[in-house]
Amino acid sequence: MSEQKQGDLLAGASASPTPPASPPAAASLVTPPGLISEVSDADLSIGQTLARWRAQRGESVSTVAARLRCDTAVIEALESDRFNDLGAPVFARGHLKRYAELLGAPVDNLLERWSVVQRQSVAPPDLTSMPRTRTRSVDTRVWGRRLGAAAVALVIGLAAWWILKGSGTATTTPEQLAAQALPPPPPAPAPLPVAPPPAAADAATVEPVASEVVTPIAASAPPVVGERARLRLAAREDSWVQVVDATGRRLYFGTLRRDNSVSLNGAAPLRVLLGRADATSVELAGRPVTVPSSIIFNATAHFTIDATGQVQRVVASVQP
Questions:
Q1: Which of 48, 101, 112, 198 could form an SS bridge with 202, CB 3.0 to 4.6 Å?
Q2: Which of 71, 100, 120 is where one domain is finished?
Q3: CATH number, position 106
Q4: How many Å apart are CA 285 and CA 229, to the nearest integer?
């Protein structure tokens, strides 16, 4: 082949079209918002799980606290697993359930894990591993030594008494010593002069003294007590309840369990404290009473209710 043909072949090869490029790889799937990351909730604590769900919703601590009408300290305690800072277990469980429902987190799973944590925190101690005090050995000869020492002391005392008695040096009897120690009796007081009886003329000039008229003080009237009020409370969740009537008599004090109710009767107005006001229904004389949301804070409401069903918030007095 000549050099010219070889050049033509090379030129044709260089001018041939470039083979088509391989098709681009398929685009990776975009993770939808709200999808749980690779680390499951089971690998996190209860507080970390709540913080993750809040972060996925893009909300801040102050935002969720405002929506729940509670302090930001409650949210911070929940997300830090500091449940003891929330008070009694009934309050901690209520705050946890409300927060999980707001975030859309698995409520039942979180409550079950919280119950396990509570049982572990109050587990009874292992009495088999407790240190025990060693039993002291009893010395059977100690009483013999003590009796011997007492007998020797008695013999020595009797010998000393016999020696002193035989020497004749005793000078004073115990009765004489007691007489010397007593102080002399005090002199008898002088008789008081007897005043002579008043003369008849003096008695005639004595004017009678007007008797003092004492006005009796009226007893204070008993406090006026209002009408009787029949109150019924029904709890959808465990709730702390305290009810006191107008006379100061405590009608109820304790935890009202879930799906339970209590009927009370006392002098109005009644003073009511509900630990879970959002989960407790109120009825007065068979009529439902709505507790305004403006007086509910941290799921707690403290109010008075009169015989007509009027509700007023109780404002705690500020100490100076």
A1: 198
A2: 120
A3: 1.10.260.40
A4: 7
Confirm if 303 and 291 have CB atoms less than 8 A apart.
Answer: yes
For 95-158, the DSSP string reads: HHHHHHHHHT--HHHHHHHHHHHHHHHTPPP-GGGS--PPPPPP-TTHHHHHHHHHHHHHHHHH
What is the tens place of the pLDDT at every residue in 240-251?
A: 899 999 999 999
Per-residue pLDDT reduced to its tens digit, 26-38: 333 333 444 445 5
* CB burial of residue 158 (10 Å; 0-12, 13-18, 19+): exposed
The rounded distance, in Å, linking the Cα atoms of 136 and 138 is 6
- Residue 186 resides in a domain: no
CA-CA distance, 228 to 237, in Å (whole number)? Answer: 28
Reference 281, options 297, 304, 258; nearest CA is 258
pTM: 0.50
The residues near 50 (Cβ < 8 Å, ≥ 6 apart) are: 78, 79, 99, 100, 103, 105, 110
Q: Which residues contact 201 (CB under 8 A, 6 or more apart)?
A: none
240 contacts 90 by C-beta, under 8 angstroms: yes
Q: Cα separation of 59 and 64, whole Å?
A: 7
Domain termination site, one of 70, 89, 120:
120
pLDDT tens, residue by residue, 119-175: 887 655 555 554 555 556 556 676 777 888 888 888 888 877 777 776 554 455 555
Asked whether the beta carbons of 58 and 52 are under 8 A apart, the reply is no
In CATH, what number is assigned to the domain containing residue 284?
2.60.40
Handedness of CA 145, 150, 154, 157 (dihedral sign): positive
